[in-house]
Amino acid sequence: MASKTKYPLMKLAEDYARAVVAGKIVACRWIVLLCQKHLDDLKQQADDGYPYLFDPAKGEKVAKFLQLLPHTKGKWAGKRELIKLEPWQLFSVCVPFGWLRKKDGTRRYRTLLVFVPRKNGKSIIGGGLGVYMFTADSEFGAEVYSGATTEKQAWEVFRPAKQMIERTPELREHFGVEVNASNMVRLSDGSRFEPVIGKPGDGSSPSCAIVDEYHEHQDSTLFDTMETGMGAREQPVMLVITTAGSNIGGPCHQLVRDSERMLEGVIERPDLWPALFTIDPGDEWTSEEALRKANPNFGISISQDFLLARQRDAMQSATKQATFRTKHLNEWVGAKNAWLNMLRWKEAPARKSLAELDGRPCFIGLDLASKIDIAGNVLLFPPVEGDPLWHVHGRYYLPEARVIEELDSNTARYREFDALGLLTLTDGEVIEFEVIKEDLREFAGRFDVQAVAYDPWQATQLAQEMELEGLPMVEVRQTVQNISEPMKEVEALVLQRKLAHGDCPVLTWMVSNVVAKLDVKDNIYPNKERPENKIDGVVGLIMALSRAIAGADSAPSLSEHITKNGIRTL
After folding, report:
1. What are the structural domain ranges in the chain?
2. For residues 167 and 181, what is the distance between their CA atoms, to the nearest angstrom?
3. Pick from 168, 88, 99: which is nearest to 128 by CA?
4. Cα within 13 Å of Cα(504), Cβ side
5. In DSSP terms, which residues pair with 206 in a beta bridge?
6. The listed CATH number (3.40.109.10, 2.60.40.10, 3.30.420.240, 3.30.365.10) that belongs to domain 346-564
7. pLDDT in tens, 427-448
8. Residue 568 pLDDT more than 60?
């Protein structure tokens, strides 16, 4: 642990962690878990079998260096003041540099994620750490890149870093830094710091890569290229600084989700240090406490009056609410043209397990649009007496080759789903339909299957075979006329919080990929912005609900429940 006199900045960081865990500082669940993890790890480091140790001198060095740099924005820059790190910054940014591997003394944490709303001092973190890694990290021939998808974004980190060095002649002279128009170099060892748009060129070997506003990236190409190029470095650092965004199907959201699951102990990511500043489910977004929880620099770099004014605007205008909650509370709100309100989707009621649903009426939607990619088999259980909810379960199928081989940008996601037991992998390059037929036989034996909706595309032979076995197969062609009405009803159930989907990661991802536009006749149809944005499970759900609606007229008790729960019959 940090000595108060010898390592005062690390002591402040540890005091912050203890205050958060004790509830003395308001913070979201993820920050509480990260603080608790650090404190628990401090206790474990004395064990011989524990592979890491904390050296407060390493974290103190980074903190002291950053506080020798000048502000580049705001009133502090005008007064030529030096940076003063807040306790949350000391904990989020400097503490991870103190954690080392016992076996070789190199850094434990190689990916640092600072997930924080706008105006909370990101330029200090990105620019300051970039300067440290460029000059003071003792890395011969250091290569530091500020990477982004556009030149403007790449300069958002590089510009303040350049200004910090330009305004600190002692630092420039001590390390022999030459400041050029579009990069900085150290002639003594060839170290360089420069912005990069897209990905670094061949032969690049980043010792530090800074990815700003990762939520704007459509895929992980830049991140992956930087990470791959770090292979020759002993202890590289990938620094991601970002707010939330609108692309739940993108790589940033996946990194945040990995971070959450790591903090919950679901997956192992010992090299990832995620500081996730946001609000918790159930928090009242219109409260001042929500602002304080999500914005650690509340009243410091971002004024209380400014945030309260933006909050009032959002409360008075539905069109401003999504932007406010994304940029100032760090909530994900779904795709830019998303069909569903993902915040409402996340507020779904608890789902019954399949065991609890044994014997219940069930409608099945089967989407087998492709034999070489993911397919969905979605079960929808309508309300019964004593249970007003619609319960959704799905099984998803994928050829094993899609997980083993690097066939597309979803490979990593598929591997994650497979590790969670959410995919059924079939041998070979295409989906083995016999596996799906076995599941349908299982469902027929367990539930009161009313109908199995299928699109004749790719599924005609399977449907004929299952019909011979007694399953009620119903053809539902995926036309606007067949899909529009049940699609609207799915949305209504979500808004009424009557669709119990269990927050299944596969279905949630697919829902976030759906975009829809009204035509002149007020019809909607599920679409996706890119081929890799899969929506098969959603289509299966819509098809299943279409049969539930159609079957309501011939099933009085079911019709009663559908009408009672806000679903119109056709």
Report:
1. 8-276, 346-564
2. 15
3. 168
4. 25
5. none
6. 3.30.420.240
7. 888 898 999 999 999 999 999 9
8. no
Tokens of 240: 């991601």
Residue 377 CA to residue 531 CA, distance in Å, equals: 20
CB 567 within 8 A of CB 555: no
Given a contact cutoff of 8 angstroms between Cβ atoms, the answer to whether 22 and 252 are in contact is no
Could you tell me which residues are beta bridge partners of residue 148?
197
Percent of the chain with pLDDT over 90: 64
- Strand-pair category, 111-115 with 272-276: parallel
Cα 343–chain centre separation = 14
Query: Three-class SS of residue 538?
Result: helix
Q: Is residue 428 within 8 Å of residue 419, measured between CB atoms?
A: no
Tokens for 466?
A: 């299952």
- Amino acid present at 162: K
Segment 261-302, tens digit of pLDDT: 889 887 789 999 999 999 998 899 999 999 999 999 998 989
Q: How far apart are CA 89 and CA 121, in angstroms?
A: 9
From residue 452, alpha-carbon distances to 223, 287, 477, 487 in Å are 42, 46, 13, 17
C-beta of residue 93 within 8 angstroms of C-beta of residue 114: yes
Report CA dihedral (334, 335, 341, 343) to the nearest 10 degrees. 10
E runs forming strands in 62-199: 99-101, 111-115, 143-148, 177-179, 184-186, 191-197
| Helix pair angle (122-135, 151-166), 10° resolution | 70
Q: Write phi, then psi, for 373 (nearest 5 degrees).
A: -135, -165
Any residues with CB less than 8 A from the CB of 436 and at least 6 apart, and which? 366, 368, 375, 377, 397, 462
pLDDT digits (tens, 9 = 90+) for 75-131: 776 677 899 999 999 999 999 999 999 999 999 999 999 999 998 988 789 999 999
DSSP 93: I
Bridging pattern class, strands 191-197 and 143-148: parallel
> 31: which 2 tokens?
């920050």
What pLDDT, on a 0 to 100 scale, did the predictor assign at position 81? 85
d(CA 375, CA 395): 8
- pTM (two decimals): 0.68
Rounded mean pLDDT, 549-557: 58
The CATH fold of domain 8-276: Rossmann fold (3.40.50)
In three state form, how does the secondary structure of 341-381 look? CHHHHHCCCCCCCCHHHCCCEEEEEEECCCCCCCEEEEEEE
In residues, how long is the chain? Answer: 570
Kindly state the average pLDDT of the residues 169-182. Answer: 93
Which residue is associated with the tokens 């600072």? 114
Question: β-strands 361-367, 375-381: how paired?
Answer: antiparallel
CA distance 548 to 329: 38
pLDDT band at 153 (very low <50, low <70, confident <90, very high): confident
* Beta-ladder partners of 500: 391
